[in-house]
Amino acid sequence: MSLNKNGIAKRIAQELQNGFYVNLGIGIPTLVANYVTPELEVEFQSENGVLGMGPFPLAGEEDADLINAGKQTITTLPGASFFDSATSFGMIRGKHVDLTVLGAMEVDQTGAIANWKIPGKLVKGMGGAMDLVASADNIIVAMMHTDRHGNSKLKTKCSLPLTGVDCVKRIVTNLAVIDIIEDGFLLKERAPNVEIHQIVKATEGVLIIPENVKEMELN
Amino acid sequence: MSLNKNGIAKRIAQELQNGFYVNLGIGIPTLVANYVTPELEVEFQSENGVLGMGPFPLAGEEDADLINAGKQTITTLPGASFFDSATSFGMIRGKHVDLTVLGAMEVDQTGAIANWKIPGKLVKGMGGAMDLVASADNIIVAMMHTDRHGNSKLKTKCSLPLTGVDCVKRIVTNLAVIDIIEDGFLLKERAPNVEIHQIVKATEGVLIIPENVKEMELN
Amino acid sequence: MITKTVENISRALEGIKSGMTLMLGGFGLCGIPENLIKVLANSTYSEFTCISANVGVDDYGLGLLFKEKKVKTMISSYVGENSEFERQMLSNEIEVILTPMGTLAEKCRAAQMGIPAFYTPAGFGTEIAEGKEIRTFQSKKYILEEAYQADFALIKAWKGDHAGNLIFRGTAKNFNSIMTGAAKTTVVEVEKLVPVGMLDPNEIHTPGIFVDRIFQGESFEKRIENLTNSSPQ
Amino acid sequence: MITKTVENISRALEGIKSGMTLMLGGFGLCGIPENLIKVLANSTYSEFTCISANVGVDDYGLGLLFKEKKVKTMISSYVGENSEFERQMLSNEIEVILTPMGTLAEKCRAAQMGIPAFYTPAGFGTEIAEGKEIRTFQSKKYILEEAYQADFALIKAWKGDHAGNLIFRGTAKNFNSIMTGAAKTTVVEVEKLVPVGMLDPNEIHTPGIFVDRIFQGESFEKRIENLTNSSPQ
């Protein structure tokens, strides 16, 4: 059975390592924070200017001066700091943020990502996504393997306007964990009870299937 | 009679206008602060990271964390602020500092200035001088008209390695106030009891002498 | 000390003209110069080019400027959450220049600090890079981006003193501190205008030299755009 | 929270090797990482390339590194006030690269912020510009300057917490805050190491993300280079 959004987030949470500063994009990536074990020393950065984000505030405790990049009210944890947007993107550009998790409309086998614009549809802008993907060494894309019409979002070549090139290293979808290597998509793990042929069918680009593909371990 | 260093500083102090942020270099320029009338709203910037410098501290009140660009102990006035060196030179480069006063070894009639290096002699470095002269719209050079050998420091063309080009607008020396215009040095004022022929003799570059050259008012 | 205080908001905006380029601080509805925006929306001026991270919501923040059709060109990073803006964008009443947020921030900071241009990796290989110089440093490719040129920066700070020194609060610092001094004239509204000497020189985020005019904002609604709460355990 | 505290100064300097490039905070003797400098001067390592605003005095600050012949190349802005340094410079034992101070500062800040290169007017028309790209923006000429590449940044802060958040004091901020995070590894000695939660997130000058290791400095002499007093009226 394929994963739901929380399942994807849960799997990505395993990628977080001690000492990681992490930027979580809007959507599935935001859910990752819910699955981080409390022992792990990690801090969440939001590109509008905060490091050390905590949970959302209790009702009545919200503060208009404390929001995240999704404009949601937030709290901070001890050790937090605030800074301007140039410094915030300096952290990102300067590779001080260790891991970026973001959603995508398409990823291709060269590591390109498209997640900000559909020609002919309303364009809302790239926000910080182009800075994030151009800068981070460690980018994980969190998305469903196919779109709502069943078309693969793992492409030979992105068809939509790009957000960045040569940047995505790992993709976690409802079906699989896939790395991008020189030759194409490398299947690393499959979701519980998902068969390899399902992943093959749902992937447009070159999919490299090693002899043993282990099942994701999710708790 | 030509001015001494304090006289030069006194004359330059008249150039300060209400609302000016001023950067004073080492030497004669530092003396300018002594002649600013208390009614005038000005603030002194030091490029090592302070705005709103006050007088030197009384003995026993010095603080190792409070110095100016000449490494002298300082105090701050109400309204002062501290900042890093990138911000400090950002103020200078971004033309937020209204007036820069600095010394020179040579100035030429094109507005070039040399004040950091004598070939064959020990070189100590340019410090912030190159940033200051390249950025400020309003630069006053404070210096003696001639060197200790009697050679003019107001040149047709600087002979020493340059600090900046096309930047000096006004020079105040022990003999005169001189502006740099397209055609050369324009004599604006002469020091009390200094004759024009003395200024002519002490100036190497083209000196333009208007019909009436007023005497500096110094009291 | 140099005094930056102006007696009222009209004096603060003196010199603003139709067709000018304005920088506006804030991210979403957080840290926006709401008093200045209101006056501008009700002014006779229009045809502005605005530089701001976002475009507000329909009836608040920058949204008031679109509602009153004050904006000709919008330079921004993310323009969602405002249906009137969308309408004007789709009907080509307004020109929209989308810029990666980090690039937008650095172009403000560059203007503030007298850096005419810099290289950034953001947008390499995308349509953002079209027509721009590409250069390789340490075997990575970067785009040349230039500093913004703006007439007015409209800023909101938490505390400020009469010398123009500013302190921001929480994530309301965002674009405010880097737009201060990045335009020909910088105008700041503050929640708390305090006498000189009340702010510790060590705690000042933005020195007064970057500020031209400062005033006590009349009222601050500080609306929350996306209220999100945790449920108590 | 991510902990940056190391138990002692040896751990703080782990990984340092001869021939590395070091950034050292401070201006004159103000805000120098004096504990780190002392250990380095007494270490077995040498042949360093050092980036710092100045070169200390003969028997204190960076001067200790020259006294012990630890430096191969000095990148600095003003190298007066140190006779042993002068001797090594004049006898070509040490290579000296002089850089305008604002350019030096911005090259540190660029390294910190992932900007590979930028344009600055400082030094145009002088020997500093030789061999560098010149470009015109808004009819003014600028020089292309690249970010520094350094192995270690040695920093001194006033207060710091275990998460690496830093607060500087007075003019001791200088190059310290802009070198933090500008090298592969950033090591910070603080006068007061405080528990996490003691520093107001609003008052932090440099967030802990830029810091790799932090420790309580053993002793701070904080020598004054040029004591200047006013006489009482």
Distance between the termini of chain A: 16 Å
Termini Cα gap of chain C: 53 Å
Rounded average pLDDT of chain C:
97
Beta-strand percentage range of chain A: 25-35%
How confident overall, as mean pLDDT of chain A?
96
Number of alpha- plus pi-helical segments of chain A: 5
Using the coordinates shown, work out and report the CATH topology of chain C.
Glutaconate Coenzyme A-transferase
Domain count of chain C: the total is 1
Write down the overall geometry of chain A.
globular
- Structural class label of chain C: alpha/beta
What oligomeric state best describes the polypeptide chains here?
heterotetramer
Could you tell me which chain pair has the largest interface and how many residues each side has?
A-C, 51 and 55 residues
Write down the Rg of chain C: 18 Å
The helix-strand sequence of chain A is HEHEEEHEEEHEEEEEHEE
- CATH architectural name of chain C: 3-Layer(aba) Sandwich
User: What is the overall silhouette of chain C?
Assistant: globular
Task: Sketch the major β-sheet of chain A.
Answer: 11 strands, mixed
Helices and strands of chain C, in order, run as HEHEHEHEHEEEEEHEE
Q: Quick one: biggest sheet of chain C?
A: 8 strands, mixed
Radius of gyration of chain A: 17 Å
CATH C-level of chain C: Alpha Beta
